Amino acid sequence: AFITHDIDNLRSGWKAPAKAALKQGNLLRFGQQLWQHLTRPDAWDNLETIAATVAEYGARSTFFILPEHQLGADGTPNADYPITPALQQRLLQLQQQGCEIGLHGSIGTAIDAQHLGRELMILPPCLGLRFHYLRWDPRRTPALLEAFVETELRFDSSLGFAEHFGFRHSYCRPFY
Fold first, then answer.
1. Three-class SS of residue 135?
2. Which residue has better confidence, 124 or 91?
């Protein structure tokens, strides 16, 4: 099995309960959620727990990490977290424990080789790629990826479509 996790958000687990509390007019509960956000790690910032849980089943995780936290050029959100030295250290530790770190290419990287190359340099060495929101342009992306196949990347797992279920080209195999 290829157990993968697209890490879009690490810092937003508190937002839904806080928003619900505000809608209900429960300012105390909202304040508690805000205080918890400011003083404790976010519930979604649990990469090590995920890796350990998957390892209990005899498998290993592949984490696809989004290097950009600014909005894409079209206004689509990327990550809600920056790549800090502390996060880079955690990713290296996950690799040492047998997990794989892959690039979750930000909005625009499927059609911009320079942008993709910059993102690859931000993360620890990674072999795999999955574009954010599975954005993959059939006319441009394959040629773009050819430049990275020999040096950085070994596979692209952007096999599906963001708009509907199913696989590109009607089969579930990585594009090497």
1. coil
2. 91
Please name every residue paired with 103 in a beta bridge, in sequence order, or none if there are none: 65, 129
* Token digits of residue 159: 């096999």
Burial class for 89, CB neighbours closer than 10 Å (0-12, 13-18, 19+): exposed
Q: List phi, psi (to 5°) of 17.
A: -65, -35
DSSP string, 138-152: TTTHHHHHHHHHTTT
Sign of CA dihedral 142, 145, 150, 155: negative
The H or E element containing residue 79 is none
- Dump pLDDT digits (tens) for 1-47: 778 999 999 999 888 899 999 999 999 999 999 998 899 889 999 99
Using DSSP, state whether 101 is helix, strand or coil: strand
Q: What does the alpha-carbon distance between residue 60 and residue 21 come to, in Å, rounded to a whole number?
A: 37
